[in-house]
Specification:
The complex is a heterodimer of chains A (462) and B (805).
Chain A: H1 35-40, H2 45-53, H3 56-66, H4 78-82, E1 93-98, H5 107-114, H6 116-130, E2 134-139, H7 144-159, E3 175-180, H8 190-197, E4 222-226, H9 227-231, H10 233-239, H11 241-246, E5 248-249, E6 252-253, E7 255-262, E8 268-273, H12 279-284, E9 298-302, H13 322-327, E10 336-341, H14 346-360, H15 366-383, H16 391-402, H17 418-443
Parallel strand pairs in A: 1-2, 1-4, 2-3, 7-10
Antiparallel strand pairs in A: 5-6, 7-8, 9-10
Helix pairs in contact in A: 2-6, 2-10, 3-6, 5-6, 5-7, 14-15, 14-17, 15-16, 15-17, 16-17
Chain B: E1 28-32, E2 35-39, H1 45-51, E3 75-80, E4 83-88, E5 99-101, H2 105-120, H3 136-144, E6 162-163, E7 168-170, H4 180-188, E8 194-197, E9 204-207, H5 218-224, E10 230-232, E11 245-250, E12 259-265, E13 268-274, H6 287-291, E14 306-309, E15 312-315, H7 318-336, E16 341-345, H8 351-364, E17 368-370, H9 389-394, E18 397-401, H10 405-408, H11 410-421, E19 426-431, E20 443-446, H12 452-461, H13 463-469, E21 474-478, H14 487-503, E22 508-512, H15 519-524, H16 536-544, E23 550-554, H17 558-561, H18 565-574, E24 577-582, E25 594-597, E26 606-609, E27 614-618, H19 631-641, H20 651-661, H21 670-675, E28 680-681, E29 704-709, H22 717-720, H23 723-726, E30 734-736, H24 738-744, E31 751-755, E32 760-767, E33 775-779, E34 799-804
Parallel strand pairs in B: 1-5, 16-17, 16-23, 18-19, 18-21, 19-20, 21-22, 23-24, 24-25, 29-33, 30-32
Antiparallel strand pairs in B: 1-2, 3-4, 3-5, 6-7, 7-10, 8-9, 11-12, 12-13, 14-15, 14-25, 26-27, 27-28, 29-34, 30-33, 31-32, 31-34
Helix pairs in contact in B: 4-5, 7-19, 8-19, 8-20, 12-14, 16-18
Amino acid sequence: MTDTPTPTSYTVPGLVPTGPRLITARFDVADGFTYDGYVRTGGYTALRKALTSMTPQQVHDEVRTSEMQGRGGAGFPAGTKWGFLPPDVFPRYLVINGDESEPGTYKDRMLMELDPHQLIEGVVIAAYAIGAAQAFLYVRGEMALAQERLAQALNDAYANGLVGRNILGTDFSVDVTLTWGAGAYIVGEETALIESLEGERGMPRLKPPFFPAAKGLYMQPTIVNNVETLSNVPWIINESGQAFHDLGAPTSTGMRMFAVSGHVNRPGVFEVPNGITTFRMLFEAPEYCGGVRHGRSVKAFIPGGASAMWFFDEHLDLPLDKPTVDQAGSMLGSGAIVVMDDRTDMVAACWRVVRFFARESCGKCTPCREGTTWLERILKRMLDGHGRADDLATLLDVCESISPGLAWPPRQTTICPLGPSAVSPIASAVRRFQHEFEHYVQHGRPIDGVERHAIHGAGAHV
Amino acid sequence: MSDETIDDTDGTDVDAATEPEPEPKRTLTVTVDGRPFEAQPGSMVIDAAIAAGSYVPHFCYHPRMTPVGMCRQCFVEVDGPRGPMMVVSCMTPVAEGQVVRTDTPQVKRAQEGVLELLLVNHPLDCPVCDKGGECPLQDQAFSHGPGESRFVEQKRHWEKPIPISDLVFLDRERCIQCDRCTRFADEVAGDKLIHFISRGNDTQVMTFPDEPFSSYFSGNTVQICPVGALTASPYRFKARPWDLDQRASTCTTCSVGCRTVVQSTRDELVRYQGLDVESVNWGWLCDRGRFNFESIGSDDRLTTPLVRGESGLEPTSWTGALGAAARLVTEALESGGPRSIGILGGARGTNEDAFAWAALADALGVTLRDAQVGDGLPTEVLGLPRATITDAANAPTIVLLGPDLKEELPVLYLRLRDAAEKRRSRIVELSSVGTGLSRYAWKRFPYEPGLGAQAVSAALADPEVRDQLARGPVVVVAGRGNLAESQEVATATLASLLDGLTGAGASWSVLPALRRGNVVGALQLGMAPSEGAGGGLDVLRAAAEGRLELLVLVGSDPMADCPDTDLARRALAGARRIVAVDTFLTASSEQADVVLAAAAYGEKDGTTTNLEGRVSGVVAKVTATGTSRPDWMIATELGLALGHDLGFGSVDDVTDAIATRVPAYAGVTRTAVARNVEGVLTEAPLAFLPPASSSAGERNNYDYRLVVSRTLYDRAVGTATSPSLAHLAPGPAALVHPLDLELVGVSAGTEVQLVGARSSVVLPLHTDATVPRGTVRVRFQQGGGSVGELVDASTPIVDVRIERL
C-alpha cells in the first residue's frame, strides 16, 4: 500500500531531534504537583520576576517575541491575541480553557494533574500582562484528579500570597476561580465555554459580534487561553521570549506537546521540538512512540484531533509545523494524534469519530443537530450490513449540507466548527478508501484483511 | 406584525402593521437581487430582503426577539471582500452598498439542504396537526424545500403532547428547536421556565422539574411556534385554519388595548391572536386576554332581558323589558327628579356604548354618573400631560406609583420590562409591596400603606434620583396599587409626586394605569361625574342612604368592582329600583328589577380607547348571544321609550356623533380608525388634580396595615366563565412577611381571622417576602372570605389585626 519508499527509519535511539522539556520536566518529579515540590524545582520565580522587575507591557512583549502559537487548536499567536483587548475597557477577564475533550487529547489533563502550580503561575503572569483582576479556570467535569490537585494548588498559592490581594507584596491583585464543566465537548469552544461560565447552556455564540476579546464573559473584554499555552508562560518569562523562539522552527516556535494514541507501541504525551519533528519520527523513534504495533505500517492517522482531515502514509514525513500541515490539507489542532494501522476498518473508524460528534453536538444549528446523527446512522446501518445502494451518495450529500464543498479548511453552514468536524473523517475516508464503503454496501461486511473490531458493543476501541 | 401568516381580515388592513414609522434617520442603500433598496440602519439583511420583495425562508428569526441564527434556514449570498459569501441573513446587519442575492444555485442548495434536515425528524402528521394550513414549516417546505426526503431511518420519538402548563401542550416530535418559545420566555416575558435540555439529536424543549410553564404570557409561544409543537388547550382541535374567519380588533380585557385578530368558525369565537403594532403590544397578548374568549360562548350568558316578577327575575320580551325600564325611569324622575337617578358603568363596553348612555343621561338631566366605583383615580388624571406607552418605554426615567402592572396591565409590563432590560429606562418604584417590575427597578422606595407621600419625599431627596430626573423626560405610571388605601390618599400621593417632580425641574407626563378595558373612553365620553356631582362612590353612598330612586348599572358590578363591599351591598339594598345592563347575571345585576341582556365583546362593532387615549376598533365577529343587544342600542331604545330620540340608527351613527360632538375625538373618524392599525391618539382637555389630603394616622403596634391588590387571574366574570382560566386564580389568601408569620404563631396555610374596625374575614395565611413587616396583603376578588368586607372607602387606610382561630 505504500507507493513512496520510506526515506529514513528512526527505529534506533538518538536519530531524532529532541529539546529541553519546558513544561513537562516536573512530570518525573514525584511531588512536582505539590507546592513544596514546585518551589523546590524553581517554581514561582517567573512570577516574582514579572511582578517585581517587569511592567505588564514588558511581559506582553516577551510573549509576543516568543511567537508562541496558542495550543488550544486554532494556533493563533498568544501575544497577538492579548493585543486585541480594547484599551481602557475594564473589567476584563482571563479565562483558561481546561475543558480538554477532543478524543485522543490528554496533554492539558497531564499538565493540570502533574504540574498545577506551573499553570497557576502562568495564569497570574498572564493576568498581570493583560490587566485582569479576575481569572476563571474552567476544568473539564470528568477530570477528577486534575480538579483535586488544582484546587489544592490554588489553595496553597493563595495561602502563600501568590494569588489574591497584593501578590508578593506588590500592588497587583488577581483572583482565580475554579469552575468544573458539566461534561460537554462543545464547551471547549471558547464562546460556548463563556456561556457555560455565565451559567447558561453551553452553546456557541456567533462571531461577530461576540469575539471574546471585545464582547466575552459578561459582555466584557475576555482573553481565553489554553492550559498548555499558559503553562509555557513561566518558562518564557524566566528564559526570555527569544529563547523560546529559538526552539523549534521559525514558523512553529518552542516545544510543543503531542498526545499520540492508537496503534503505536508506546502511546503517550511527548514534548517535542515544534515544527521540526516529523510524524514518522514521532511514531517510530524509541524516544517517542517506538513504532506501530505488531510491526505493521500506518494506514491513516489523524494529525490534530478528531476534527482534522486524516493523513495517510505519504504525509508521514511532514514536520509537525502548523503552516506545513495546514497547507497539506489538515491541521495540528490541539495536538491529538491517532494512528491507525493497516488492518483498520476505515468505515468503522469513520463511524466511531462521527458518532462522537453526533453525541456531542449541542443541538443549536439544524445541520449539525440533525445532520451528524443522520450520518452516524447511515454509517451504522452500513456496518450492520444493511447498506443501500444510494447510501454513499446520501452520505456525501448530507456532508455537503453541513460543510459545502467538503473543502479544507472547511466551510460551514453552522455557527461553530463542530458540524464540519463530523464531515472531515467521512470526506477523508471516502476519498481514499471508497472501495471499503462500497464493499460494505455490496457485501454487508468489511473488505478482506481488516480486523473487524468489536465495534458494535462493549470493548470497542478504534 | 409577527411574521405569522395573518391575512384576510375581512376588509381591515392587518398587513399595514408591518410598515415601520417613518424615521428621520438616514437609510442605507443595499441591492437585493439586483434591485436597490433603502434599508434602515441596524436592521438585518433578512428584513431588507423581505421588505425588498425577495422572501427569505426562516424559522428561528422573529423581528421582536434577538436573532440567534439557530435554524440556519435563511442563508443568502452577500458580496464580501473575498467575493460572494454565504451568510445567515438574520444575523448579518445591512451595510451601505451591500449586494445581496437570494436566488443563486448555492443559496438554493443551502436552503434545501437545511429544510431537508429540518424534516428528517419531523413527524409530518400535518393532517392531525392544528398548525397544518398555517404552518411556516409546511409552507416553506413547499416553497423552498427539496420536495422529497432521503431519510430512511427511524424518526425521533417522544411521548406525544405533554402538558407543560395548565394551558400549553408540547409535542416534542414536531419541534424543530428554533428557540422561539424559549427565547420569548426568557427575553420577552422574563419567565425563564422553559429551556433546552439534552443535546445533539436529543435536544428538546422542557420545563424544569416540578415547575410548569406558568407564565402569564405562555399563549404567545403558541402563536410564534413555527410548527405545531406548542398548542393551547382552548383551541386544540377546535378548527382548521382554512375554516377560520378573522377580523382585526382590540382586546378590552384591560386598558392596554392590545391589537388582536379575532377568529371564529361556525359562528363561534375560537381564537385570538396578537397583532404586531409598534405603539402598543408588539404582537404579544397576556393569557387572560388571549383565552377569555371562552366566556363569550358561555352557557351562563344572559340570552333575554329579565324583569322581576313574583318568582324573581323572569325572562321577557325586549318590548316588555324596555317598557318596564322606561317606567322605572319615569317614576324616578317624577318622584325625585334627575338627581335621584345614578348611572354607573361604561368601562366594560365600547366608546359608542358609553357615549350613547351619556347622551341618554344628558337628555334626562342625570348628573350622578361614573365609570368607576372607587377603584380608580379622579377623572382629572386624564387631563394631566399624557404619556403614551412608547413615551414611557423610551423615557430615561419611569416612576411607578400604582398597581402591579404584571398583574393588572400585563402587556404594559412587557413594554416597560423591555425598556429596563434594554437599558433605555430606569425604573423608580414607589409601592407598598413588591411587584412584577420590582426586580427590574433601578431604585425602590417602599412605603407603609397611607404614607406614600413620605416615599415621594425620600425619592426626591435622593441625590441619584435627582441626577436621574435631569436626564430627560420622566413618565409617571399612576394608578391604584392598594385598594384599601382610599382614592383620596392615592390622589394626594400622586399630587405630591407631580409637585415634587415639577419642583425638581423634571419634565414629566403621566400614563394613567386605570385598569378596566374602556374606562378611559367611558370617562372621556361622558360617563364621568360632572362638575359638582360626586363620583362613583358618592353615587353608591346616595343609594345607600336611600336618596336614589333608581340606580342604573351599565355593565357595572359594584359588589365585585367596588373595594368597599359593605358600601356596595348597602347601595344595592338602598336604591329603590335597579336597572342593570349586563352580559351575565352578577352579584349586583341579580338584585336588579330589570336586567337588559347586553351583547358582549366580539358580538358588537365599535371603538375603544386605551389608557394612552388611543382609539382603535373592536369588531363583531359572531352573532350576539340570544337576543342580547349592544349597550348603545339599549340606551337608544330606552331613550325612544322615554320620548328622547338620541338620533342613533346604527353604531356608525354613534361613532360619527362622537367625532362631531366631542372635540378630543374630532380625528376619530370611522375611516381613520379603519385605516390606522396603530389607532388614533386622542387628548383629554387639560385638567388639574382635585385637592386631596392624605391623613393616614399612626398604626397601632398590634395592627397590620392592609394592602388589597389584584392578580391577573381572579373571579372576574370574564375569567370565571372561561373554563380554561377559571381554575388559575390563586385563591383567597392573606400574605405576610415570613417573620410576621412567626409573630402570629401559626404555620403557613393556616386559616386566621383578619379583624378590621368594621368586620372580619377568615383567610388562609401565607408568606410573601416582598410584603414588608407590619403589612398584610390580600388578593382582591378571589372568592372565599371577601376582603372587601374589611375595606372602608371613607377611611384613608385600613388597619387589621391577625388573630388565630
